[in-house]
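Same chain as my last thread, 363 residues:
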Amino acid sequence: MANRSYLYVVDEVPGEGAPLTRVTGLSEWNWDVPLVHELLVSGSGRLVPSTIWDAPAQAILGDYNQGIAHLERLFAQLPHDEETQRQIAEARSVLADPDKQGRYLLLEVAEIHVLGVTDDDNPFPEMLSEAQGLLRDSESQVDSLIRYALTQPADKLDQLTGSGSWANNLYFAPSGAPQHEPHADIQATPPQAAPPAPPQAAPQLAPPLNQQAPQFPPPTGHPQQVFLMRPLANGAVQWSLGLLALIPFPFVSAIAAGIVMTATGRSRAPATDAGERNRTNAANWGVTYLIASIILIALHIAFLAIFDDEYSSTFYPIGIPITIWFALSVTHLVFSIVGSVKASRGVVFTPVALPFFRPRPQP
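reply #2:
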């Protein structure tokens, strides 16, 4: 399942009193928060508790009319070619539907922002920072967003118009109330029919029931409370970090690349079986390259001290260690590129390296 950005029309502010009385799906976008979503919630945008994801995840609430006005400002400046105008007409047709109009637009972004977190044990501070970065609470910020949108290439036109993303039924729907903290012991008790009154019992005056506004449940088959999950690692990042050796600081960048590959290769973040093997192989190669670089650099310095006078006019034998190190570094760069490409395709890359580490079993 793709991680998505979800946009809804609501009439109440989540987290303030009664549950939402109306939730209308408007748009969803795979793997990113498109500019059209950002612009639509730019009207007096503010953070509110998420109504889909576990607390303390946040959503963004914006004024409906202001958001539409900001989008129209963008539309007025887009090219007048046939395809652009077709996509604009598609958006206007959806937004002109009375059933799609309301007081607020609610943007649920936690599923996108969880993709970029670095702390799997406590992702919410980073996710909060990302959500705050989407707020546009002044006209100058809205103007900047529109100017940025106008610089986008033609192949990203649909991110400005929302073409193809407008939908009534989104993958998830808000429950109508902010979610509880994870692992809270809260269970829904199914309603039970009242027991029949005993025969000839005197009528009793029952206390009035507290009526709640109707809620829109999540789609059938999907749980109301969903835990955010990051995609499983494939090991490509660990291999690509080997390219740090290209930084133009001889020897230092090589040592840094070996250290970083080794450290990140022992990450405990969830990974596929192939991903765990790839990042373990990257760690093994990183420590191999690190040790070999230190030894060869030390030998080069020693040769300079020992053979300086006798062989000062020739490159060898003084240059033997540095020549070997140069060849090793070229091999390292090739391994880093090949490993990154293969890992991104789900293929395990196993170069010749000292077997310092073994893959950890994945749950």
